[in-house]
Structure formats: structure tokens, C-alpha cells
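seq as requested:
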Amino acid sequence: MSLFNERLTFQGKYGTIERNDIKANFCFHSDYKMKPFFFLLFRVITVFPILFFMACKNTDSKYGMVEMFHGSPKPVRMVPRAVLGDLPSGPFLSQKIQGILLMDTGCDYEGESSFTYLTNLLERYVTSSRLGDLPFHYFIDTDGRVFAGRQEITAAELHEGDSFTLRPEDVDKKQQLYARMAAKRAPLMKLEGYVVVALLGNYNKTLVNEKQEKSLFQLLANIVEDHNIAYENIKLLKSIYPETKNPGFYLENYINPTTLKTNIPPAPGQHRFFEQESR
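C-alpha cells:
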């Protein structure tokens, strides 16, 4: 009997293999049974990335000027606090956040670079015990850059007669300098419960530009969602302390209920229920 005509049978773990004329076949047709598995695996490998890409693409959206991802505002790109000087944050007066307070820098800002101004401001609010810090939680400059100030859990620090509470057109240089130097000795205004956002500039003469708009609403949307803040609790400094005349005319008129509702998604606890209640 020729070797090539010999029929051999091998009993193995996965079945019987018969060999005839140097050609081996599985008796139970394993190749045929494995084809559906490989076909399904191929489909998963090729189709899944496409579905994943489409799903990710559809998660990006906008609510007014606010960029959204999976129904939530995208995080704000900001200059971290440590860039300006990593010092302790304020007098450590903890607060429960219930609202947002918007203001400008009054006569305190004179057009210097943002880094120079905020670094100097930080040094002004450092006490002899080295427990001072930037007085507010966030700053937005004229280029739309957001600077992180003190931690949100720490109450903002603003004193009566501070240069932030004065308008440039109402004071001269001497009065402005005195306001800066005497600020820490004056009574402290009560701003507990508010995240304070300050825009650099005099908005009696300057309009809010497009870069500032985008940064402002992106920041506000994140704060609103994080702390479940209703539209009615987004306020201006002069609504609490009218004597401050802060913010200036153009910023005051820009921030109104219609603009807020158009550009800031409702807080998680507000949504349609809040809208119905407000009508």
C-alpha cells in the first residue's frame, strides 16, 4: 500500500482528523462551523469604530454661545491659580454657594497686561500673616482669557470704598491711589454665598467683546451646573450695593434675563419646571 494512498485517522482533543493523500480534513467540518464567528468578528472590528465615531460626533452641540458635550457644558480653559503665585486662599471664610455675582474692575484696572495687574492685585491682598489672595473667584480679561482666583468655597473679599467700587470718571489719580491703600481697613462687604466673576476694564466706555462673551457664558454655564443656580440668582454687584455703580453701563445692560436664558443652559434642578414657574 502506497504511502500516498494510505488513510490515517487521529483521535485528538477536538475531534477526529483523517489524513488521506497528505490532505487533512476535520471530520466534523470545523472550518465551516468557525466561519460565522470570524465573519461576526470582522463586522464588529469594522463597524464598531464607525458607530463610535458617529456617536461621539453627535454628542457635541451648542446652547447659545455655550459649547456642550453629552448635554453638559464643556470645561472652561483657564489660567490656573498657581501661574500667578501659589499662595493660601483668602481669609478662609467658607461659604455655601447660592448665586453668581458679576462685576467689573471699576477704577482699579488701568489697562496694564492681565498678568501684571493680577500679580500686583494678589500682592495687595496678602496680609502680614500671608493669608491673603486674589479677592474674587474668576477674572476675564479683554482677550477672553479666564484666570482662576480664590477657591469657590472661600467667600470673596471686597471692602467699602475699595477702588473696585469707584468709577474712573468719578475720581482722580490721588483718590484712586488712596482707595487702593485704604481698602483693607474699611468694613468688609457681605458677599457670602456668591461666586464673584470680574471682567477687567471700564464698561462705562467699553463694550463686552466677542471673546469675552464666549468665555463669560462658558464659565457661567459651568458654575450654574456645578451649584444648581437659577437664572434669577445671577446678579450684578450694584443690585446688592447700588452705591458701587458696578458694573459699568454697557456690561449692566448686556447682562439681562433674556441674554442669560438664551446663552446659559438651565441648571439641572431647573429646566422646564423652572421655566413654567417663571411665566
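The chain has a mean pLDDT of 79.
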